[in-house]
Amino acid sequence: MHIRGDHAELVVGGRLDVRSAADARTVLHSAVDDGAGDLVLDLSELDSWDATGLGVIMGAHRRAGRCGRRLVLRDVPPQMQRLLVATRLHRILAIEGGIGVDTLPRV
Q: Model-level pTM?
């Protein structure tokens, strides 16, 4: 897993899972605490995430809200869009461009 960027936009790549969760949490919390306005997470380079990785995203979302910021997901890969829809988190998280629920293949 790799994360690059600043307190306004981060690009997340690789696997966001139980092995990378602690490092990702540290970087995301630091970005939330050090910035202002929307924090954009570009997920175009993300290969996969598991429940722990999704929990890290949700934790950053909650922390951003407490800091008066908004966490915005950008370029969410289709397989991760399906997970967000299945867990109904697409209704809670800000997703740039939204998710075309009707266009996602059924699983």
A: 0.87
